[in-house]
Amino acid sequence: MAQFIEIQENIFCEPCKECGSRPVIEQIKGAFSVRCPKDASHYKTKAGLFNIDDWNLKNRAHVPLGNAKNPKKAS
After folding, report:
1. For residue 42, which of 18, 58, 60, 65 is within the disulfide window of CB 3.0 to 4.6 Å?
2. Is the pTM of this model over 0.85?
């Protein structure tokens, strides 16, 4: 079974957009990856230095484009 390193609570991390779990760090040989602890098929960052910014970008809940409000009033 894989050993994971928990990310400190004071470091902001988006939850996994698939299941809502807080990400962990996985060591793969000499490199590190940020991934979902529950399912290996959910998003995982590229191996290297752990990249929480990439994790947050890929797991952020984006507002659908059709719901954006236009502040200008059509004349």
Report:
1. 18
2. no
